[in-house]
Amino acid sequence: MSVDGLHTGEATGESTSARLSCKSAGVNIGVLGGTGPAGQAVAVQFAGIGIEVVVGSRALDRSEETVAALREKWSERDLPLVAGENAAAAAADVVVVATPWEGVLATVEPLAELLRGRIVVSMANALTRFGKEMIPLLPPTGSVTVAVARALPASRVVGAFHHMPAGPWSDLDHPMEADVMVCSDDRDARAEVVGLIDRLPGLRGVAAGGLGSALAIEAMTAALLEVNRHYKTHAAIRLTGLADPARRP
Ligand SMILES: NC(=O)c1ccc[n+]([C@@H]2O[C@H](COP(=O)([O-])OP(=O)(O)OC[C@H]3O[C@@H](n4cnc5c(N)ncnc54)[C@H](OP(=O)(O)O)[C@@H]3O)[C@@H](O)[C@H]2O)c1
Asked: What's the pTM?
């Protein structure tokens, strides 16, 4: 779905979220830093359900190589993946930031105008190694997601996908069963992202509050990595006590 589709509604006074809801079946996704394991997992998962994904990169040739490799790996699926620089990915309806946390602001700030009005999903975790352990770092804003929101005041910033382990999650033949906690101060944007996640095989999107939740969600990733290290696995999160997605308020 083109960017122009979003702009049409602006003239009529229709809200961006309403427009996105109406056309969510045709939404496209862009991934900034889509050449890394996390971005590739996001890209193949959404492409696997027929959503066009622009795999962004700082260098077009790296994106082209990544898209070619993913298309070859999943050749029988004809994935709708498109190669492009990060600016091309930033023109999508929903944009996922999948760079290391150190590069997040340098990536999104120059794209702020392009990202205006768009849903921008931050999945970055600020972590560091301390001896053998992975431990969470506390960004001055409390979380990377809030830093993205500060850098993009005109965008609809959402936190999601922080806990999804890229390796197993990128295997389209074996969907992971997991809940994805989604936080945003923009409730409509959060609902749109929850709805998109609910369409992915094995996943359930869970509305997990405003941007204030991002601190806990991001820091939790460090504990999950320690679970993985101890049990030599790739754990993800499953919450109990939630109703079926179709019956959730
Ligand atoms: N890996 C996981 O299992 C996982 C799971 C959940 C969340 N995450 C989060 O997702 C993010 C990406 O993880 P990853 O493992 O895919 O990371 P990564 O491989 O280190 O980086 C992803 C891509 O970001 C770009 N990049 C690297 N350094 C950059 C910089 N300084 N500034 C701007 N762009 C840069 C590179 O793409 P180009 O060179 O092509 O531009 C790279 O391929 C991280 O913030 C991580 O915390 C990861």
From this structure: 0.91
Q: Is the CB of 144 under 6 A from ligand 1?
A: no
163 CA → ligand 1 middle, Å = 14
Classify residue 140 as exposed, middle or buried by CB count within 10 Å of its CB (0-12, 13-18, 19+): exposed
The residue extents of the domains of the chain are 27-247
- Tell whether ligand 1 has an atom less than 6 A from the beta carbon of residue 110: no
The domain 27-247 is placed in CATH, from the list 3.40.640.10, 2.60.120.10, 3.40.50.720, 3.30.1520.10, at: 3.40.50.720
For range 89-96, the mean pLDDT: 98
The string of pLDDT tens digits covering residues 11-20 is 333 333 433 4
Q: Which whole number is the average pLDDT over 229-238?
A: 96
Q: What is the mean pLDDT of residues 233-238?
A: 95
Separation of 21 CA from ligand 1 center, angstroms? 29
pLDDT at residue 243 in the model: 76
Distance CA(243)–CA(248), nearest Å, equals 6
Residue that the structure tokens 């969600």 belong to? 217
**Pocket perturbation via mutation, ligand 1, pick of 61, 95, 99 by most ligand atoms within 8 A of CB:** 99
> Is the separation of the CB atoms in 112 and 151 below 8 Å?
yes
